[in-house]
Amino acid sequence: MSLSLVDADTDAPGGERRVVVITAAGAGIGRETALRFAAQGAALVLNDVDEVALRAVADDIKTLGADVVTWAGDIGDPAVPGQLVGAAVDAFGRIDVLHNNAGFARNSLVADLTDHDWYAQQRVVLDAVVFGTRAALPHIIASGGGCIVNTASISGLAGRSGMSAYSACKAAVIRFTEVTALENARHGVRCVAVAPGAVRTAVLDRYLASIGSTAEEFAGNILGRLTEPGEVADVVVWLASDQAAAITGVTIPVNQTANRS
């Protein structure tokens, strides 16, 4: 299936590759999304806090014949989103797609939520989305338009006990997605979000260990299983493609949870 990741409207012969920026690309959803974009002919600019994992993904992308630039750093640092966007523009001269994907959860009841745990999650789950979008928007507009895909969560659509900070931040990501879409449609920029259920990743493994739960107990979704990272990545790549040109300002659940208690 061709996802039209070549911009046919450019003056360059045969169109230009679309340039895709992805955060938390070292593993899980980000890694699978990067590989799929690379297979479709995109140029990649990847961020992760884990430099070793980031290099491994870049090596895999190079075997696909795609160009890739890596920028290791904590995307929750307010300076890093702008630096990442700058690296993309320096390397490829444009940005067409931004996938704000970073996030993690810490288990805590509201009454026990510490300042540290609140701000630690806010800076990665919410602030990085806001600051990354703000930095990338002028360049996406200058490229003639494009798409921003935010990784939200079903926990942002309905709260889950023990995930107060994470749920609140992901809910804010969903509202921020809608506002970004409303404000920038006139510039040819779409903004959408995916809301995965429980996804089989190292991040989930660490969270389950912290609450003493198993994947089977935690999943609690309609399909009765964990979502695979590649299943979410397929949705992200499709949303960023021309096949989804009429879709903006919405959040797409992936493996909806049936029981959030």
TrEMBL record:
PROSITE patterns: ADH_SHORT. InterPro entries: NAD(P)-bd_dom_sf, Sc_DH/Rdtase_CS, SDR_fam. Transmembrane segments: none annotated. It holds the Pfam family adh_short. Gene3D superfamilies: NAD(P)-binding Rossmann-like Domain. This is Unannotated protein. It comes from freshwater metagenome. The lineage of its organism: unclassified sequences, metagenomes, ecological metagenomes.
